[in-house]
Amino acid sequence: MVDKFVGTWKMISSENFDDYMKALGVGFATRQVGNRTKPSLIINMDDQGMICLKSQSTFKTVEVQFNLNEPFEETTADDRKTMTVFSLENCKLVQKQKWDGKETTIEREVTGDGKLIAVRNRFLITYIRNLSQMACSFF
């Protein structure tokens, strides 16, 4: 089931990201950089089921490795220290982050037209990113 998420995904659009970052308490300068950054998302899985999710941009690269349904400590791109757990729910890769009595959820779903949609919720703020899968290239 995770196989459909594996690959390199390029961001093609982002909606409401600034409001989402404000709700998280991210400072103005970091939000400005975040709004201008268009990271690639690289998802891999090894033979043991360990998943690697890497957000890569010219500004910052963040990588997490995890097994489904196993909580782990994560340092996010905006330097929050969270307790995070990934799961598969209704064909979506769901990431739940908890820190300082707060919580946010990120749902990633591959659509019928082959796009990866990431929907993040915090309070009543919803942020959506659309990504398209990049073709493989060999060097």
From TrEMBL:
Gene3D superfamilies xrefs: 2.40.128.20
Keyword match Cell membrane: no
Keyword list, A-Z: Transport
MF terms (GO), sorted A to Z: lipid binding
Ranges in coiled-coil conformation: none
Any Pfam family matching the protein: Lipocalin
Keyword Transport (UniProt): yes
Domain Cytosolic fatty-acid binding proteins, residue spans: 7-24
PANTHER family: FATTY ACID BINDING PROTEIN
Family: Belongs to the calycin superfamily. Fatty-acid binding protein (FABP) family.
Protein's name in the database: Fatty acid binding protein 4a
